[in-house]
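Entry:
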Amino acid sequence: MIRIMGLDFGSKTVGVAISDPLGLTAQGIEIIRRPAENKLRRTLARIEELAAEYGVTTIVLGFPKNMNNTIGERAEKSLAFKEMLERRTGLPVIMWDERLTTVSANRTLMESGVRRENRKEYVDMIAAVYILQGYLDSLEREKNE
C-alpha cells in the first residue's frame, strides 16, 4: 500500500491532497493557512501530522516554473520548501511541474458553479489534487510502457 501526498505551495496557503491506498486517484483533504509567507513552522508541523496519519511514503510538491521553463522567485521558494519538508518528514519530495494546475483548478470550480469569491477558498486544494493526479497518472503510464 502506498500513500502519496500532493502539495500546492502558495504564498499564504498550502493545498493538500492524498492518494487512495492503491495510488490511483487523488483527493483534496485540506488547505493549510498561515498568517505570513515566511511563517512555516506550523505549516510543516501540520504536513508532518497528516503524513503520519495517512502513512505517506512520498510527497509530490508543485513546481511553479515559468511558461518558458525558467525558474523564478516562486519556484526558488518551492525548492527551499522542499528541503524543509525533507528535513522535517524524512520523506522523499518530488518536484512536479504545475504550470497549468491553477488554471485547470479555477476552470473546474467555474464549471462546477462555484462563485468567484468562493473559488479562492478551494483553488489551492484542487490544484494539489491536479499536481498529485498528474504524478499518479505518470506512474501508471510508466508501468504500462
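The mean pLDDT is 89.
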